[in-house]
Amino acid sequence: MILTLALLSLPAPAKPTGPGIFCDLYPEAPVCAAGSVSCVMCHAEGGPPSFNAYGTDLRAALPLVDAYEDELPLALAAIEALDSDGDGASNLDEIQAGSWPGFGAEVETECLPQVGTGNSFYRVGEYDPHFAFKRITQDFCGRALRYEERQTLQSSLSALGWGRGDDGGEPEGYDDARQDPAVLELLRDQLEACVQSRYWQEVVWEIGIGVVQPKGYNSDLYILGNYEWDLRLFAYATTGDRDAADLMQAAYLVVEEPVGSGLLVAIDEPRTETEAYAQPLAAQDRFGLITTRHSLAMNVMFAPVPRTLASHWYRELLGLDISLSEGLNPIDELPGVYDWPSPRDVDDKGVWQEDCASCHTTLDPLSYPWARYNGIDLENGTTGMYLEDRATDVLPETDGAIFGLEIQTPEQWVAEAVASDAFSERVVELFWTYVFRRAPYSCEAEEYDALWTAFRDGDYPRADASRPRVVEEMLHELVLTNAYGTP
Amino acid sequence: MTLLLLSLLACGPDTTKPGDTLDGGSNDGGSSDGGSSDGGATDPGELPAAAAARADLRLKRWRQLSLDLETALELPGDALCLETGLYDCRDMHVVPLGGTSVPNGLYDTINTVAATTGLAMERFVLQACWNRAKADKALLEAGQPAVVFSHLSDPMGTSATAEELNAQTSELYRRLLARDPLQAELDALAGLHGTVLAEGAKNADWAVLACFTIGTTTEALTY
Amino acid sequence: MARLSRRDLLQAMAASGGLAAAAGLGAFSRSAQGADGPRFLITFGCFGGASMLDCYMPVSSSEALTVEGRGTVISYDTVQPEGSNIRSVNRSIPTQFLDLYRDQMVVLGYQASSVNHFTAQARSVNGRGIYAGRTLGEAVAAVHGASMAMPNVNMGRGGYSEPGLDPTLDVRFRPEIVTNPVTFPLSASGWRGVIEQSEGEGLAIQDPEMMALLVAHSRELREGTLEQLSPFAKTFGGARRRQELLYARGESGARMEVDDLIQQLFFVPDLGEVLPLSRYGLTPSEEVDRVLSYLPDAFPTDVSGTPRDRLQAQAALAYMLIKSGASASVTLTDPGTDGFLAFDQSHQSHRSAQEAHWDRVLNVAARLIELLKTAEYQDSGQSLWDRSLVLFATEFGRDKWDTGGSFGTGHHLNNGLLMVSPLIKGNQSLGRPDPNNGFISGFDPDTGEAYAFDDIAPGQDPLFTDERLPPGEEPVFGTVLAALGISYDGQETLPVVLG
Question: Is the ipTM of this complex over 0.85?
Answer without folding.
Answer: yes
